[in-house]
Amino acid sequence: MPLIIGKSRIEALSDGVFAIAMTLLVLKLEVPAVMHHSSDEAMLQELLEMTPVFMTYVVTFMIAGGFWFLHQLTFHFIRQVDSVLVWINVIFLMLVSLLPFSCGLMSHLLVHPVTQLFYYGNQLAIAILLNIHWQYAKRAGLIQGSESKDMFVLTFRAGQTVAVFAACLITALWVPIFSWVPIPVILLGGLIVEWSRRGS
Amino acid sequence: MPLIIGKSRIEALSDGVFAIAMTLLVLKLEVPAVMHHSSDEAMLQELLEMTPVFMTYVVTFMIAGGFWFLHQLTFHFIRQVDSVLVWINVIFLMLVSLLPFSCGLMSHLLVHPVTQLFYYGNQLAIAILLNIHWQYAKRAGLIQGSESKDMFVLTFRAGQTVAVFAACLITALWVPIFSWVPIPVILLGGLIVEWSRRGS
Amino acid sequence: MPLIIGKSRIEALSDGVFAIAMTLLVLKLEVPAVMHHSSDEAMLQELLEMTPVFMTYVVTFMIAGGFWFLHQLTFHFIRQVDSVLVWINVIFLMLVSLLPFSCGLMSHLLVHPVTQLFYYGNQLAIAILLNIHWQYAKRAGLIQGSESKDMFVLTFRAGQTVAVFAACLITALWVPIFSWVPIPVILLGGLIVEWSRRGS
Amino acid sequence: MPLIIGKSRIEALSDGVFAIAMTLLVLKLEVPAVMHHSSDEAMLQELLEMTPVFMTYVVTFMIAGGFWFLHQLTFHFIRQVDSVLVWINVIFLMLVSLLPFSCGLMSHLLVHPVTQLFYYGNQLAIAILLNIHWQYAKRAGLIQGSESKDMFVLTFRAGQTVAVFAACLITALWVPIFSWVPIPVILLGGLIVEWSRRGS
């Protein structure tokens, strides 16, 4: 169907899938079943042992928030959608809704290479689909107005996500314990750029 | 109540139910509990053994995405709703929200005839309700403008889904192992038609 | 805060809670864990034994759909909301989101009086809150235009839900096995009235 | 990106995360598995033993509803968002989606000091982020119109939530059994103020 339709419904489905996938992450945080009648120290200990699980939760939530933000920004420029773009988005959302599984795998075995390859592979696949979505929208003439500086920045940011998770994947193959490094580096880098841009 | 009301709320409920049903599919992917301390090979093996579960996940997500797309397209033409259409949609959404159960059943016993009958039965029921919804909307005069070529294509597509899942059901009765065949055939067929139409 | 605000956000939260509560009902349908390697007959048998669970699922989904429909219709007439109406709605939604628990309780022990009292008690509480919500909105002058025939029908319908579930509760106390009767009687009655009205 | 964008998408994500987090609370209410064939008294007993779990459910749902209400009110005044505000909101929503875990922890061990510190710590963190969000929006000029009396009341209310949960946290350290007291006191206080304001 070469039908050109409005974008509000695919936006609503995306917001729904992101909100659910992000909130389901918390189901991986299981309340320790055996903590009844424990002393304060034993209980604090149990919660502290959950630190890697909490860290994975926080990191995955923030990454998903970042993908949601970039995806939402593309729709700031997209005027309308066609069926090809809808299908690209369905695949994109399928990969997003896989995040609670990847996150669960990761929080069980934080520095296992197979776990990390699966986790970063999922993130990389999301990043690639985000770029396919954005490039297709631009080439199929579904964009509002002409190429602007804001659009260029967005294209750069979307491309950056591929670089981040490809870097994580490669790092995971060699030094699994430092595979997280590219993420905070880029996130902090992005925020610094943000603030310096606001200042100028 | 012969009351004619706006369509935005039933659209929002539909997007919500679809988003949740599609995202809950992932809960059927359980992180193997016994994978601690396993060697890389053992762990890869465990993930590879999940292949049928992943395949069922991907296929069910894509089918649900397809139903969402067709359902959303009908609302592109529907101007307003009455209470009969709302109730048809509630039954439609009930069948959609049954998908995580059907998918879970399927991913446990991929080639079992009873499982397959239940799974394709669920999909067929969704397809039938989609057609009832669309036919009712057209006959009750809830459509915007007159019958167009786009509407005809949509009617054809909606009818096609009934054919696909009836074909799957019948195949499942005789050769369960090939019961999937009608789905990719139609999906790929649809995409090819899509692209050839864009070309002409 | 005597602040009068727009209604779109409370509508969105309501659609979200309803969509999720309705879709979570399916999590009560557990895929029988021990069905591997069973014969076709054994497996059919296992699915057939789930009949009361399926019935509870279908009935609860349809009731929730009905409450959603009535709640949505009130917002067809409500122009704006104040903070009292928001809090009435938060309590209403809390009772709606309790449905997966009531439904799970019911599907375990279908004809147990305690189960039934809890289940119908939950539905009755939802019905009462729906009426408080609607009466408050009318009295606080949050309604669009003057009292119409459509609004009168809606008031009657909302009142009817209290009658239905009060009847179910009382029946459950004496003949638990027939406690369902008031629901289909009213649902079918409503549909018949619907169609006869359309005809006249 | 100093890009100023519309607020509808972040509102939709917020409504989604709140609706899901609030509805997931119910998953902590587990249907007692061993209640088959019990006498009426034994079953009533089992449900009564769930009282602390129900109380935690009700209180957490109402608190979440309150945060949703205040967050939604800020967007009544916010005209548009920038990327900093989006990230503040992503962190805010991460803390909101942690509520089902905190609530599950609390309902297991109601008067345990470690549990309570975690629970009130979560609520306090949400309250603090709400204030950062609101203060940032006001200072970055993302507000519609000038500072009004309604905005002042909202600022006061948002600040109040920090006071409530800081008070709960401190009480929990000394008399865990009375740590709930500040919440109903403030909630009832708020409602009384509400009604007296409506009267004048």
Q: What this model shows, in words?
A:
- Four copies of one chain form a homotetramer.
- With 200 residues, the first copy, chain A, is mainly alpha-helical.
- Chain A has helices at residues 8-24, 40-49, 51-77, 83-96, 99-108, 113-139, 149-174, 182-199.
- The model of chain A has no long low-confidence stretch (mean pLDDT 86).
- The C-D interface holds C 1-3, 5-6, 9-10, 12-13, 15-17, 19-21, 24, 27, 83-84, 86-87, 90-91, 93-94, 97-98, 100-101, 104-105, 108-109, 112-115, 118 and D 11-12, 15-16, 18-20, 22-27, 29, 31, 35-36, 40, 43-44, 47, 57-58, 61-62, 65-66, 68-69, 72-73, 75-76, 150, 153-154, 157, 191, 194, 197-198.
